[in-house]
Design brief:
Strands 1, 2, 3, 4, 5, 6, 7, 8, 9 and 10 form a 10-stranded mixed β-sheet that branches. The radius of gyration is 35 Å and the shape is elongated. By secondary structure, it is of the alpha+beta class. It has 2 domains: 40 residues; 113 residues, Immunoglobulin-like (Sandwich).
């Protein structure tokens, strides 16, 4: 018998070929495909639920403020009048209150269409959906009681509180008495 070589008696294993970059990328794509499909299907179902009203109503409240000013009290009076324009870009809302640093309090006033001073204090001013509310001497205003020292040209922050939109702070320019 010819010599026995134990190494030759074992079956030879084929050397593993190194995995190519293309094969690895293919396996990665196949592994990620199922979660991506599940996410797309879930997003489609949730979108359908929202569109059909199953999730309730979605109301984006967005209020923009422009032309904010505070007219100084005439003759050293104790009341300053605030004017501004509110543009409601979303659902119906209501201006509930205003605060200003240095003022003892602020009141929301609705005028009956005549000159300033003949209005009455209200708990809120409605702002219809996609509408504009102008606070002016003839529609309504913000009356600051005891506003403190004001100088023309300076700005004071007014914090507006809305029923749905929350709080919004704007800088109002102080104007001489009798000017909006």
């Amino acid at each position: 018998m010819i010599g026995h070589d134990p190494v030759l008696a074992l079956p030879r294993q084929a050397a593993a070929a190194p995995e190519s970059g293309r094969d690895a990328l293919g396996r990665l794509v196949r592994a990620a495909l199922a979660p991506v499909i599940c996410a797309v299907v879930l997003l489609g179902l949730l979108s359908g639920w929202v569109v059909t009203g199953g999730a309730g109503t979605i109301s984006r409240i967005s209020i923009e403020v422009s032309s904010a000013s505070v007219a100084m009290p005439a003759g050293g009076g104790t009341r300053a009048l605030g004017y501004l324009v509110l543009v409601n870009l979303g659902g119906a809302d209501e201006l509930l209150s205003v605060t200003a640093p240095g003022a003892r309090r602020a009141e929301l006033i609705r005028h009956d269409g005549s000159a300033a001073g003949s209005g009455h204090v209200v708990r809120g001013l409605a702002i219809p959906a996609h509408a504009r509310l102008t606070l002016s001497p003839f529609g309504g205003d913000i009356t600051l009681i005891g506003p403190g020292q004001l100088a023309p040209g300076e700005t004071i922050p007014l914090t507006l509180r809305f029923r749905h939109a929350g709080r919004l702070t704007v800088d109002a320019t102080v104007t001489p008495p009798g000017t909006p």
